[in-house]
Amino acid sequence: MITKRIIPCLDVKNGRVVKGVNFEGLSDVSSPIELAKYYSENGADELVFYDITASAEGRKLFTDILTETASKVFIPLTVGGGINTLDDFDRVLKCGADKVSVNSGAIRNPSLVYEAAKRYGDQCVVLSADVKRVDGTFRVFAKGGRENTGMEALGWIKQCVDNGAGEVVLNSIDTDGVKQGFDLEMLEAVSNIVSVPVIASGGAGCINDFITLFKTLPKVDAGLAASIFHFGEVQISDLKAEMAAAGIPTRKD
After folding, report:
1. Quick check: is 11 catalytic?
2. CATH number of the domain that 20 lies in?
């Protein structure tokens, strides 16, 4: 089994980290700068920074907060929110991002993934897919989970990977913030059709949810979570110790 990554996620709105349930009912958590520094120093393998309302509000990502956040982080940083053009890629990379996450921008312009991968390399392009079950089918949602595109998710994800996305963050809207475990059915379906790393997002409520994830779906490369880390319900050091005890390889701090 390959080494598994643990990735806290900073959902940022108006310069503050927020958290909701099923992408709704957002409440204020903390400063992204302080949280990023904490996670960088306390065992996180990577960090994700989403400006979650940039696409819905039709604006560019807040680069001043991103630049300050990136300066505090000494682990790989993935950044997303309002990424619609190659210029947007360039801007956030210059702010200190290591990888750039695309969602709504790729839905609007399917060639964006291919063009970005060609310019910056596959390893720099992360497809963030917000997916929800609609009438028994996995559907892609845009604008921070607000808009049903009507597109079938598995075909869309495979197309983006074929175009050069080097990683897939699969955000299950159905399990987001519910804390009843990752969406294993959805994750398995995606893992079976792509050969790039898949990151599970949405549903983590306790340490055992990560153990179950990696034991059940060894193809999944990483577990991403927000509130259980933000509110101190799970310490990353404890999580990694439990994973190691269960025979799941983790990155050493």
Report:
1. yes
2. 3.20.20.70
